[in-house]
Amino acid sequence: MKFGSYDWRWPQWNGIYYPDDLPEDWRLSYYANEFDTVLLPEDVWQGRREALNDCLAELPSDFTVWLELMNPTISDIPFALSSVAGVLYRGTERVAVNVHENRAVVASSAEPEGMPRCWSPQREIGSDLAPVALVPAEAIASPRQLRTWVEGLAKLAGDRESYLIFEGTPPSLEWMDQAKTIARLLGV
Question: Percentage of the chain surpassing pLDDT 70?
Answer without folding.
Answer: 71
